[in-house]
Amino acid sequence: MIKVKIKCFSQVKYALGKNEIIMDLENGSTTLDLEQMIREQGKDKLNDVSLRVAVNQKYVQNGIELKDGDEVAFIPPVQGG
Amino acid sequence: MIITPKEMNDKLDDFTVIDIRPENQQIEFPLIGLDPFISKNGSLPDMDGKRVLVCQFGIVTEGMILENDLENTFSLLGGAQAWDEFYREQQDLSRWSRQTVLPEIGIEGQKKLLNAKIAIIGMGGLGCPIAQSLLTSGVGQVHLIDGDMVSLSNLHRQPLYSPHDIGKKKVKVAQEKLSKLNPETEIKVSKAFLDQSNGQSLLDNSDIIIDATDNIKTRQLIDQLSKQLNIPMVYGGLFRFEGQVSILNVNGSPGYSELFPETSTGGETCEDAGVLGMLPGIIGNIQALEAVKLIVGIKSNLVGKLLIYDGKNHKTEIIQL
To answer: Which of A33, B212, B238, B258 would disulfide-bridge B254, Cβ 3.0–4.6 Å?
Structure first.
């Protein structure tokens, strides 16, 4: 198992009700697996929301394998101005 | 009391000029065109009549006058640095002396600001503080682009507008209010929403485009125009207590389409999701700060990075794009 810290921004924060979550994942889990879990937890509140993913403060384009201790940020676009 | 280089020059015979600076500072800006009394160790000669005290940036002398309650004594605003520029270039930049004193800005940085042309798209929650800060920092031209009118629900977060402005075009009200902040800045206004047909002509003379809009679709269009015209874009966006800022499209650096792909959706507008007025004030000022740094050439900036600010806990996150 690996332990990762999830940082939630804007709609993700409101959908999950938390700023940060520590989660245990199976070895070999990827950002795509984690995004799936986050979307399931957020239920319909994240259905129409695009998410960008950063691992350890760096954007990742495609799913990458996570390591123990990684910080994963889920960042939706924001509209307001 | 303070006096500007121009005011002092206009009435030079009325004053005794006293240079209180140490020698090393006198070498950097030697008060050309003046014949000052040189004060040793900050001691002032006994004399009648008006006198002007000169230090390097006009800060020490203002303090001296206040602390010692000196009468008939003026502090030269901007000090020797401002006098030097005024004498050599006939340009009085003393108004900006509290920012030209910063080594990162200086006189050269201020001149870059005075020559800069910045387009602000959207004169809502972000656009108002952006325009205010750019004008007061001395930007030479701002171009305000918005087709919207002032409404009652705008007022809590858009400090350029008052109840009696409701129903009026935002850009016209903003132009009137902003012109009082700094009459030297040229304020161009376009009463239009940016679209494919007008985008290029509205933006092509700008040095920087600031995105202060409230929807993803317009951001994508600004990004496209920013790339096409090779003009950097300063992006800002809000969601409730959270804001995002990034500088996009600087010599091939990531743009909005790299930040959020074209198919991106999500996030309500401030009208729908709600926002406290201070948040656009904070985020808009960060955008203005980044624009100023970009013009002046301060390297530590948000090019290729996304700043996320949370107004609830004041945490910031900087993501490398």
So the answer is: B258
